[in-house]
Amino acid sequence: MPVLSLDCLPVELFHEILSYLSGCHILKAFYSINNYLNGILTGYNHYMLDLSASDIGKNEFDLICSFLRSEQIVGLHLGQNPFDLANRFLSNFANQQPLTHLRSLWIDDTIVVDRSFLTRLTSTIDLNILLSIRFDRIRQNDIDLSDSYNFDSLKHLTLRSSNQYCSLSKWAPTHLTYLHMFFDSIVHMDILIRANMHQLKSLGIGIHCDSNNIQEFTNAFSKYQWTQLIQFNLNLSGKCERNYIVW
Fold this sequence. Notes:
Elements: H1 11-18, H2 23-30, H3 35-43, E1 47-50, H4 58-67, E2 73-78, H5 85-94, E3 104-107, H6 115-122, E4 132-135, E5 156-159, H7 162-168, E6 178-182, H8 186-194, E7 202-206, H9 214-221, E8 231-235
Parallel strand pairs: 1-2, 2-3, 3-4, 4-5, 5-6, 6-7, 7-8
Helix pairs in contact: 2-4
C-alpha cells in the first residue's frame, strides 16, 4: 500500500486546512515536523490567535512570539489566561512592529477595557484599520477617546452598550454589515442604524422599551429601508441575543 508523504501535499491544501484552526493550535500541531511544513507555516499570513484558551501554556506562547511575525496575525481574541497571556502578548509586540495586518479583535468579558489597558492595546494595534471589533466589558467612565477613532474600515461591531461606543468615537461607522448592540437610547440606535441600513446583513438590537417610548421606537424603525438584511434579533426589554461572528 503506497504511503502518502506530507511533503507531497500542495501548499494550497495546507492553507485551506490552517484557515479552520487557531494559530496557537497550528504551531502546536505542525511546527518542527519537517522543513517543508515549517516553510508553509513561515509563509502563511492569516493566523488567528485565541489567547483566551486555557490549553495554551508558556511554551506555546513563547513559540508564538518567537516564530510569528506581526504581519502574519490577522485575528486576535484576548481573554484572561492562567499565564496572563493578553498582557504578555501586548508587551512583547509593543517592542516589535505594530500589528498592521490585524483585521479582527475580540476582547472578551474576562478583561476590563479601561484607559490603562486601551493605552497598551493601541500602542500595538491601530483600531481604525480593523474590520471587526467586539469588546465585552468597557469601563466607559474611565475612557474618553471619542476624538481618536472614526472606524472608517469597520464592518462588524459588537458591544454591550452604545454608550461604550460613544466613549471610543463620536462618529458613526458607515460600512457596517454586522451590528449587534444594546442601545442605551433610541437616538443612539437611530444614528448607527441609519448610517448603515443599506448594507446591513445582520442586526441585533437590545433596547429598553416601555409605554413611554415604544411609539418613538416604532416611528424610528418604520423609516428604515433594508436592502441586504438577512438576520434580525430584537429584544425590547434587555440586551439582545447575539449570534457572534468573531473573525
